[in-house]
Design goal:
Blueprint lengths: L8 H19 L3 H4 L5 H4 L6 H4 L7 H22 L1 H25 L1 H4 L6 H15 L4 E4 L4 E4 H19 L5 H11 L10
Helix pairs in contact: 1-5, 5-6, 5-8, 6-8, 6-10, 8-9, 8-10, 9-10
Length: about 200
């Protein structure tokens, strides 16, 4: 069952900011997204705001649709279970860890220093894994209604696709997603209980 959009202020605001930021960045020729992207070389040059701005931008229109749906579906159901405060804490901690770890990885390995990423995929991964951990036996239909999986299996699907993309695109390119998947998967269960 789909949650009502207005139930969670965090979910509603998150979708709104993501849609507006992404559309604005497409209308301005990418200038806004370029200055908000996770870019380790720019972070190490002092542009630390990038650690928090990149998840609100999506590079492709279809990616924006999937990201907004993930926030609505997974974020909405997690907000009902955890409350807005816990959902916000989970997302900030996991995506923040991925961003900081990526910047530190780039400091050590020059190949990752010139990385520049936006956050649509990482948002999907984090919310999907958080949802699947919270609802391990829930049924979810994926791949355009062709396959039904449980939450436990969905974690394997999300991580598997992320690892496959890392093999194809390179581990440094997919570092934010790989780190976010690991952080979401290993996030302490006791911190997920509703406050």
């Amino acid at each position: 069952m789909w949650p009502r959009a207005g139930r969670s202020k965090v979910v509603s605001l998150w979708i709104t900011v993501t849609v507006i930021a992404t559309i604005a960045s497409h209308l301005d020729g990418g200038w806004l997204a370029k200055h908000a992207a996770l870019s380790p070389s720019r972070i190490w040059s002092g542009e630390v705001w990038r650690l928090g701005t990149w998840p609100f931008f999506v590079s492709l229109p279809m990616g924006l649709v999937y990201t907004a749906l993930a926030i609505y579906k997974f974020g909405g159901e997690l907000a009902i279970r955890w409350g807005d405060r816990r959902l916000r804490t989970f997302v900030v901690e996991v995506i923040g860890f991925a961003a900081i770890s990526t910047a530190m990885l780039a400091f050590v390995f020059d190949d990752a220093m010139w990385l520049s990423r936006l956050g649509g995929t990482v948002v999907f991964d984090v919310l999907a894994i958080g949802w699947a951990k919270q609802f391990p036996t829930a049924q979810l239909t994926v791949f355009y209604g062709t396959i039904t999986v449980t939450g436990r299996t969905f974690i394997k699907v999300v991580v598997g696709i992320t690892v496959l993309l890392a093999i194809v695109l390179g581990p440094f390119y997919m570092a934010p997603e790989l780190l976010a998947c690991a952080a979401a998967y290993y996030y302490p269960a006791e911190r997920l209980r509703r406050m």
